[in-house]
Amino acid sequence: MGGVAVGAAAMAMEHSTGRPLIWTTAQFISAGPASGTVDIEVEEMVVGGKVTQARATLMDGDRLVLTANATLGGRSDRPEAQIISMPSVPPPMECDVKTADYRDCDDLQRRFEKRMAYQSDEDGIERLWFRPVAGEPMSTGLLAIIGDFVGGATSMTRGCTSLDNTLRIHRIVASDWILADTQILGMANGAFHGHTRLFAEDGTLLAIAGQSAMLRRPE
Questions:
Q1: What is the domain extent for residue 68?
Q2: The pTM is what?
Q3: How far, in Å, CA of 91 to CA of 195, rounded?
Q4: pLDDT tens-place string over residues 126-165
Q5: Which partner for 141 in 7, 39, 119, 212 could form a disulfide, CB atoms 3.0-4.6 Å apart?
């Protein structure tokens, strides 16, 4: 899954630079292995007093999986504000459970409990609660994975092939559940564009994720 690769790249850059991620964008070149090891190389392009510009490459042996660019760091002496609000939705335990798309496959779908708060193919909107089954703590990597479920928002875009992922971190706070407020913006030339805003249960904006992807071929 692309979100796993992006999360791995982002956390490798955080580890290497010692600074938190502000944003990253990744271009998918090929699929990574379902099992085994990938090598992540981090290159610090520019290191400033407050921010670092970095690049990460993921390799499966001699095969390039993806490249990711990022800015890490920040300033703690500037005003803070959250302009947008979390949409009004029922709390997770009052929403219906969304079953895994592939029930017989022990894949990433099984690692999340998902509850549907709202979905409309006509509006291109899905609002879905996520909770890691194993209770993983909040992290850049976890947000990258959830942010890659954009294509699952509508029946028209499920089964797509992602071309890129972008993740912008607003603020990381602890939260058992994460609301993915996803909007498919449009489809043209065989591709779609969409984004998702990720919120903690208390309404804190955690991150904004977006991607472009090729639509699946007609059956």
A1: 2-73
A2: 0.93
A3: 22
A4: 999 999 998 899 999 999 999 999 998 899 998 898 899 9
A5: 7
